[in-house]
Amino acid sequence: MIRGERYIMSASIFREYDIRGIFEKELNENIVKKIGFHLAKALLKKTPNAQFIAVGYDARLHSPILKNWLSSGINEAGLEVLDMGLVPTPANYFANFTDFDGLESDGSVMITGSHNPPEYNGFKITLNKDPFFGEDIYALGRTILADTSSIEDNNVTIPIDCKNRYIDYLVNHFSHLKLENKKFVFDCGNGVAGVVLREILDRLNIKYKILFEEPDGNFPNHHPDPSDEHTLEDIKKELARGEFDFGFAYDGDADRIALLSPKYNFKGDILAIFFSRFIKNPTVIGEVKCSQVMYDTINSYGKAIMYKTGHSNLKVKIKETKADFAAEVSGHLFFNDRYFGFDDALYATFRALELIDQGFNFDKEFEALPQVYSTPEINITVTEETKFKIIDDLKKALENPPLDFPKIKDIITVDGIRVIFEKGWGLVRASNTTPKLVTRFEADTKENAKIYENVLIKLFEEIKGK
Fold first, then answer.
1. Catalytic residue at 114?
2. Sequence-separated (6 or more) residues with CB below 8 Å from residue 207
3. Of the listed 20, 115, 418, 429, which one is catalytic?
4. What are the tens digits of pLDDT across the range 343-352?
């Protein structure tokens, strides 16, 4: 950490998938201007004839301030900012594939804290249509931390109407929907989905009720994280009344979705099965936390690939394999079939409505799948310095497990350790963004899942205690 009279610069804000920290304390004027400057320089190094970086922001109260600081840095480096204003993250990604009356972006930055508490904000970066992440972000951080210069204010930008281009695209793409006899409830969580959702629904003649539509960076009604069951209480109450056929909930920047019927909450890996059935010979990428049911089912009529957790990782893998679709359990859904391969909760909403329009019975199809018990994510707090070493030590310990350990059929190490047992599996992986180990367990029964959880956690504790 580097301290000065006017600012604190911490390497911890530069994370595997994005840049994220507390407004003013970590994301202050000095460092945000330098993020803009050095990011633009990194783009120019890759693409010497680059001209524009498109910038959008979410509903957080400090997002417009960060946009001005970031723009000053980009302008200082000699590029110009295409300013899309308040938009969902997927609309920001969409800008990379769109011509704005002769202006085409060479990259984009979405200013968003996603589902973090209100004091947080951050930057999701795309350059030349590819995610900017991993070592690129860490290298950017090292350059910025070594820079002792200062950058003057120059927040001049070129306005572009990305929001309406994005709305028009979705309306045109789904104009065939005929859902007059259905009604749906949507929970925007006071995030940025509310900026575009109502107009799309109205233009498609869809009947709806929207909860917490107004973007509000204080998130006064509930935390905008649909992977947390507690945040879904309001939409579940609406569904329990019997008035609505399905419910959709979004995170703060609308790149993650929860899809609920009155009976079930369909996680991302289950939705991957449903969507893939309507793609010819599908290739689908899942993360290591996805259910084995997903992999086995999709492999029966297509190809399922297990890969690392993280939206940037999955986008890169989609491009590498030319896959049709990818999914994370948490609700990041990536359509490369009829779309651009990035995670878009709003686009996913209308693909789901398309299945409903075609008579697909979500509840019945879910009940027909092999029934397993899956735990939610169980996080174990460790230290940033030890988390990857613990995983390495756990791998070594599993080469010669304790005598009373359940029989191991296979060990998958694409991202942490996924141990395949006779009746299920257990996962332990190091979080790329926090000092935690992430675990998840699945088996044919709750009792067996608990056994797998207990033996792996016990082995972890023994390793940690050495």
1. yes
2. 179, 180, 182, 183, 184
3. 20
4. 999 999 999 9
